[in-house]
Amino acid sequence: MQPALRGLAATAGTVVLRLLVALRRLAETAEVPEPPRATAKPRNTDLNVRGLTFRWGAAPVPVVRNLDLDGRW
Which pLDDT tens digit goes with each residue over 8-28? Predict the structure, then answer.
């Protein structure tokens, strides 16, 4: 049984080595496209929050109650 396992290990090692070589060659020849450059500016970057209530942990009393928030970037 031991000779069969050695033969299997040698074959598997050869196959894996060939696969790694092929993958490396493919990676060397593949072109990586440049990411597109952003030219447009986002519209309506306003943030509006109305009546926000927030509780923390098991405390029944809100930490923030009825918060109104307006933000603009």
Answer: 777 888 888 888 888 888 888
